[in-house]
Amino acid sequence: MGATGTLYSWTRIHAAPAAFTAEAPYAGGIVDLADGIRLACRLVDVEGMQFAVGQPVEMCVLLYEDGPLFAARPVALATKL
Question: Pfam families from the entry (predicted)?
């Protein structure tokens, strides 16, 4: 699985499943990875950045008691220089 991609679509989830109620509202989206895979995943908020369709993202892993969850976060402008 690729480490970078482009945000294809996203939404803010307010009515979360029981496992994520404490974290609501949170963002989820669909990411087109650089290697051609389209992945539905959690989106991680980065302070000072808004989500936008077409935005470059990088993949990360969120660790929970019952295992890892793939997520994506906006690529910070500083990493693109």
Answer: OB_ChsH2_C (PF01796)
